[in-house]
Write a structure and sequence with these properties.
This protein folds into two domains: 2-93; 101-299, 60s Ribosomal Protein L30, Chain: A, CATH 3.30.1330. The protein has eight helices and five strands. By secondary structure, it is of the alpha+beta class.
Amino acid sequence: MRGAGRARRQEEEEESVFISMADLTISFLFILMILLAFFASRFNVSDTVARDEYDRLKDELRLVQKTVNAPDLRVAAPVEAMKEELDRLRARVTPEGPNPMEIYNSAVAETRKKLLRNLRDEINARIKGLDVQISANFDALQLSGAGLFESGREIPTPAGSARMRQIAQILGEYLGCYALGPGRTFSPDCNDAYALIDALQVEGHTDNLGGDNLNMDLSAKRAASIYALMTEQRPDLILYSNREAQPILSVAGYGKGRPIQTNDSTAGRDANRRIDLRFIMVVPSKEADISSIKRALSEGP
């Protein structure tokens, strides 16, 4: 009898261990499924989730939770069902294939970098005394220093005017491959990413001498004077347009708020009295926009 009692206690202990391990496994799986269901409910190729899809995933999550809370969790069948559901949710969170939006936007960013490098190298090679730099975000050319503007003046110096006319000429040789309008010269050979410029801002800047309002007004006037000078040199610059048939060339003034060098020296203040040319590219809001951008560049508006 004592032997039978010990055998029964051993069986009870083994069953208790099995139940504890099963409970632990189920709890762990349930936590994983909650996390995966959360990410699945938030994931969508275009970074948005339709309401009906969101509600459906919530209903599925309630069913999973109901299964987890059932009294017969210690049997193998519910555990296997939960594993299958876990695999399904994992596949939902990790979609097949790359994201077309990410691929396109990444290619456009690289194309803009290449365009800015080509423009910088071309300008620096053809215009002596003007050290053109690319902004830290790889989205603008910074035309600084070398006496582009005298302190407090909105009209560029004679030397600055001559250099900006040359820059306008160089821009006219490049923009056609990245813009729409009568001057469109698109070819995959020069723009294989099908990158499209939405706006090309002529941005004026000042040093820190003078008040905020004065410098904001001065920077806007500097941008406007350079815009007038460039379009006088290359009238076709105003014909380049974006998808909305709007001219891509525009002006903006930023006052003294975005210096690229310290204002504590004469050379630094001279560098900050500058013009930036900022290239703002079209960013599609949905995957279907990519096709329309490529069609516009290939066939025209």
